[in-house]
Design goal:
Layout lengths: L16 H5 L4 E3 L5 E3 L15 H13 L17 H27 L8 E3 L9 E3 L11 E3 L4 E4 L2 E11 L2 E10 L6 E8 L6 E9 L8 E8 L5 E7 L8 E4 L9 E7 L4 E5 L2 E6 L11 E8 L4 H4 L9 E11 L17
Parallel strand pairs: 5-8
Antiparallel strand pairs: 1-2, 3-18, 4-8, 6-7, 7-8, 7-18, 8-17, 9-14, 9-18, 10-11, 10-17, 11-12, 12-13, 14-15, 15-16
Amino acid sequence: MQPEEEVTDIVNVTANVSSRINPMRSILLPGTVSVPISFEPHTWPFNRAYGFFDCLRGLLRDTLFPVGVPCVSKSDTMTTSKNCMYRLGLVSIALMSAFLMPQAASAQDDQPTGGSFVDNFEHLDTSRWYISDGWNNGPHQNCTWSRKQVGIKDGTLQLQFVQSKIGERNYACGEIQTTKRYGYGTYEARYRTATGPGLNSAFFTYIGPTDKKPHDEIDFEVLGKNSGQVQVNQYISAKGGNEKLAPVPGGADKGFNDYAFVWEKDRLRYYVNGKLVQEVTDPSKIPTNPQKIFFSLWGTDTLSGWMGKFAYSGEPATMEIKRVAFTAPGEKCLFPESITCKLD
């Protein structure tokens, strides 16, 4: 061990630590005594010159030895009795728990909460899906999310865009999102997009300020002005600019197509009908926060350069989803057509 005078700021902890320690002010040593730990900011040993070492020394001197733990005699001769080492070990475990347990709990907040699944939409599982209802995402969106535009028909999930005044909008549209968050893994969906300029049929993952997280997102978006291609993109802490257009042979609104992305820590791959259309390997362009899975159909009056000039046909526009799946890393493919059955 280094001499005491050479130890400098090994652990820099202020009086705020007292609030973390407070729930463990009393540590019960089985078969021995209940050891009180001081938590007053002006007396707490962490405020002294050598941080953690002063804390440990103060704890041993001020709380253990007075109640008879036989480790240091009056002549400062160290004993090595098993009883002494056992008691000191318990104290060490308690001290580490006081500092590490709260940190572990907060780290779990960033962990995915959802596991692998396949949903064929035989019914709408409300324990998995939340239906957006009664709001819009801003002035760029010309419709209000409405649960009436979400339903199951003929074995598919259907999201509709219809003329129906709700609030300040003259149109209503549909969106669903998962109740849980998902992390690295393979995301797959089979769907047919809506037809019409100014419409956006989207399959994506997202987390953001409403969930008290940075804005991270991974997108497949078919823009109504050209249903022969799909735009892939991702946002990292609200920074996008990673768009790429990929062809959808035959048209995304003419039949069902398979869209998938494989999200890894150091790589993100996008697939259309099993074909790789985009690969990202720059870590600064790969999201890191677990996200919710979304399907949405919406329109715009203002983003005509991107989505096309909106023109309502007079009939409801519909996006149909037959299947969605998430496969966690290391797990086997969940259905025969899954891209995970074919990838390494």
